[in-house]
From TrEMBL:
SUPFAM superfamilies: Six-hairpin glycosidases. Keywords: Hydrolase. It comes from the Bacteria. This is Glycosyl hydrolase family 88. It holds the Pfam family Glyco_hydro_88. InterPro entries: 6-hairpin_glycosidase_sf, 6hp_glycosidase-like_sf, Glyco_hydro_88, PolySaccharide_Degr_Enz. The keyword Hydrolase applies. Gene3D superfamilies: 1.50.10.10.
Length: 184
């Protein structure tokens, strides 16, 4: 899920579980990227307690992959009207899976890099932003339909980063964890 309210006080939170109502691809992408970075930092022996859950997560991510190789904005609801392939979440998942030696990124590059208005390539169909709760003049309720209402943007720096990370991994360069922790 995108978020969890342990107090179950937010109106977007399920009153029993505290979870928000949708599986947003970019939230899942952050989790998947963190898991592979932590696995790299800890090494196989110390990461072992998380291995089974991580493998199960990656297997499910692969099951949800669309025929073109990418993932939808609301990843687990392919029949949701208006659901679309979300570029930055797809890049995040491709990076995580590639880093885990499970998947390449050729499909991401082919499908999301499109000619822009000036003829340069741009990464298109990025979810502009998604959050929960009040924002400006509306309330973001966390429903699957909500994630389809956020504006789509191109070439936003904080959303193109996962594509760059995945490209570096594909070219054989090691991508260091974003925030290296001391290993004792």
């Amino acid at each position: 899920m995108h978020a969890n309210d342990e107090a179950r006080e937010q109106s977007w939170a399920d009153p029993v579980t505290g979870r928000s109502g949708a599986h947003w691809t970019r939230a899942l992408g952050w989790l998947a990227m963190c898991l592979v970075d932590v696995a790299e930092l800890l090494g196989p022996k110390r990461f072992a307690p998380l291995s089974a859950q991580t493998n199960a997560l990656f297997e499910r991510i692969l099951e949800l992959r669309r025929p073109g190789g990418l993932w939808l904005q609301v990843i687990d609801q392919p029949d949701l009207a208006g659901n679309f392939v979300e570029s930055s979440g797809s890049a995040m998942l491709a990076y995580a899976l590639r880093t885990a030696q499970s998947l390449g990124m050729v499909a991401v590059l082919r499908q999301v890099m499109k000619p822009g208005p000036e003829g340069h390539l741009e990464m298109a169909d990025l979810c502009g932003v998604a959050g929960l709760g009040p924002y400006q003049s509306r309330y973001r309720d966390g429903s699957p339909g909500y994630y389809l209402t956020e504006p789509r943007v191109s070439n936003d720096a904080k959303r193109v980063g996962p594509l760059m990370m995945c490209r570096a991994v594909m070219s054989g360069r090691r991508v260091p964890a974003a925030h290296p922790l001391p290993v004792s």
